[in-house]
Amino acid sequence: MVTHRVDALDALFVGLSVLGSLGAVWIVVGLFLTVRWRRPRVVLLVMAGVLTADLLALAAKLLFGRARPYVDQPLPEPLVTTPLDLSFPSGHAATAFAGATLIAAVLPRLAVPLYLLAGAVAWSRVYVGVHYPLDVFLGAVLGIAVGVTFLALERNRSHRSGSEDVYPLDR
């Protein structure tokens, strides 16, 4: 992919990569939903899920120790500042898919655009030259697993306490 970049798309994929940094876009959306529907559990759930996905991705990176593509092979320069950590799995993909999974549970009618955005953020990491495709694929799997786990925990919590579910808000 890196050797077949299209100059006209460079800014788009760099922007998507920046947008996905630290899962901030998902936290902002969760905050918006919290304010809009006055349900503070939404942003708390999204923040917890995104942070957990990021920490698990970091732990897996340390476990697997896979170098970034620009370290392993002579490739064109990455389009973004080169991360100093390891490559596998992608933290951007993990946080994007955790955030998309959690927010899609809150707003099911936006599931497709949310997952498309998560996929675009994840793929941007391959395009800009800092991840292999398998890094983003398994980062996405990790993120979805975290999101589904957090949703199950939230359902269990709300069922036990008799409190209102955080999702879906658009019924």
Task: Tell me briefly what this model is.
It is built from seven helices and no strands. With 171 residues, it is an all-alpha fold.
Task: Report the average pLDDT across residues.
Answer: 85
Structural class: mainly alpha
Stretches with pLDDT under 50, minimum 5 residues: none
Would you count the extended β strands for me? 0
Strand content: under 5%
Folded structure, characterized:
The protein has 171 residues and is an all-alpha fold. It has one domain (29-70, 84-161). 69% of the residues lie in helices and 0% in strands. The protein is built from 7 helices and no strands. It has helices spanning 7-19, 24-37, 40-64, 69-72, 91-106, 111-127, 133-161. Helix 2 (24-37) packs antiparallel against helix 3 (40-64). The mean pLDDT is 85.
Question: What are the main properties of this structure?
Answer:
single chain; mainly alpha; 7 helices; about 170 residues
Layout of helices and strands, plus pairs?
Elements (H helix, E strand, L loop, with lengths): L6 H13 L4 H14 L2 H25 L4 H4 L18 H16 L4 H17 L5 H29 L10
Helix pairs in contact: 1-6, 2-3, 2-5, 3-5, 3-7, 5-6, 5-7, 6-7
